[in-house]
Write a structure and sequence with these properties.
It comes from Tepidicaulis marinus. It catalyses: a 4-saturated-(3S)-3-hydroxyacyl-CoA = a (3E)-enoyl-CoA + H2O; a (3S)-3-hydroxyacyl-CoA = a (2E)-enoyl-CoA + H2O. One of its GO terms (molecular function) is isomerase activity. Could possibly oxidize fatty acids using specific components. This protein folds into 2 domains: 193 residues, 2-enoyl-CoA Hydratase, Chain A, domain 1, CATH 3.90.226.10; 48 residues, Lyase 2-enoyl-coa Hydratase, Chain  A, domain 2. 44% of the residues lie in helices and 16% in strands. A 6-stranded mixed sheet has the order 1-2-3-5-7-10, with helices on both faces. The protein has a 4-stranded mixed sheet with strand order 4-6-8-9. Helix 6 packs across helix 7 and helix 10 runs antiparallel to helix 11. The radius of gyration is 19 Å and the shape is globular. Bound molecules: acetoacetyl-coenzyme A (CAA).
């Protein structure tokens, strides 16, 4: 598929997707969402790709859903097309997915970043859910994911006032894993992605699924799930190889088996 709103490239065993609608600060219109879902799905299905990085421009990761596209829609339009439900597919990606956020991550942009497994922020990053200023609220998971990530008080303030958080506040609040200078953001994200991609992909996928379980279930059920998956890892080649390599004081050679 030829993409018009995103740039897609492969760097070694890492897939890199760059949102590319500079004229609209990477606002998520229908075409961009379709292309993004297709590109993420293609990388996800490729066994040679061990991690995916999603990024935008220096000024904007994404300034939200496309307001100009939404503005004329009626209730029946958005109900019938089930607006934004397809975006949930990004959160269903099995391959680890890193958001590298520089500049604005607002509305749907913040929600897209939160659908990734973790967020690396440039020191110029700004996060917010300003939908209330448009007479709506977050609609791609923001009311739920932001609340789970930063707690009720801060999520409520962000959603009710539309105030933006800078990178330091986002890191303190647990929204981002760490902050790097904006000029080094992509390099740092690629470094983290390569480190992940060099591990065993099925083990990374199982780890991701298990961490995500913490958001879906009780502590005792989550720990039970973890234990079952942990035990199952002893049926893999890569557990044997990883532990044998440690005892033999050498680097492991994982086979994704
Ligand atoms: N949708 C459509 N176009 C957008 C856009 C968006 N979300 N954000 C920016 N743009 C467009 C602007 O209209 C402008 O285009 P024109 O020159 O053709 O008018 C261009 O991008 C550049 O934007 P600005 O001139 O506004 O740039 P700025 O530097 O002055 O301001 C900004 C930057 C503060 C991010 C400002 O653009 C802004 O407030 N954008 C909207 C942010 C927002 O409200 N996001 C939430 C969207 S709703 C949503 O996401 C719903 C949901 O949860 C699913």
């Amino acid at each position: 598929m030829a993409y018009e709103t995103i740039l897609v490239e492969t760097r070694g065993n890492v897939g890199l997707i760059t949102l590319n609608r500079p004229e609209a600060l990477n606002a998520l219109n229908n075409q961009l969402l379709d292309e993004l879902i297709e590109a993420v799905g293609t990388f996800d299905a490729d066994p040679a790709i061990g991690c995916i990085v999603l990024t935008g421009s220096e000024k904007a990761f994404a300034a939200g859903a496309d307001i100009k596209e939404m503005q004329p829609k009626s209730y029946m339009d958005v109900f019938k097309e089930d607006l934004f439900t397809k975006a949930d597919r990004i959160a269903e990606t099995r391959t680890p997915l890193i958001a590298a956020v520089s500049g604005y991550a607002l509305g749907g942009g913040c929600e897209l970043a939160m659908m990734c497994d973790f967020i690396l922020a440039g020191d110029n990053a700004k996060f917010g859910q300003p939908e209330i200023n448009l007479g709506v609220m977050p609609g791609i998971g923001g009311t739920q994911r932001l609340t789970r990530l930063v707690g009720k008080s801060k999520a409520m303030e962000m959603c009710l006032t539309g105030r933006m958080m800078n990178a330091e506040e986002a890191e303190r609040a647990g929204l981002v894993s760490r902050i790097v200078p904006k000029g080094e953001l992509l390099e740092e994200a690629m470094k983290a992605a390569s480190a992940i991609a060099d591990k065993s992909l099925p083990i990374a996928m199982m780890t991701k699924e298990t961490v995500n379980r913490a958001y879906e279930t009780t502590l005792s059920e989550g720990v039970r799930f973890e234990r079952r998956v942990f035990h199952s890892m002893f049926a893999t080649h890569d557990q044997k190889e990883g532990m044998t390599a440690f005892t033999e004081k050498r680097e492991p050679k994982f086979k994704d088996e």
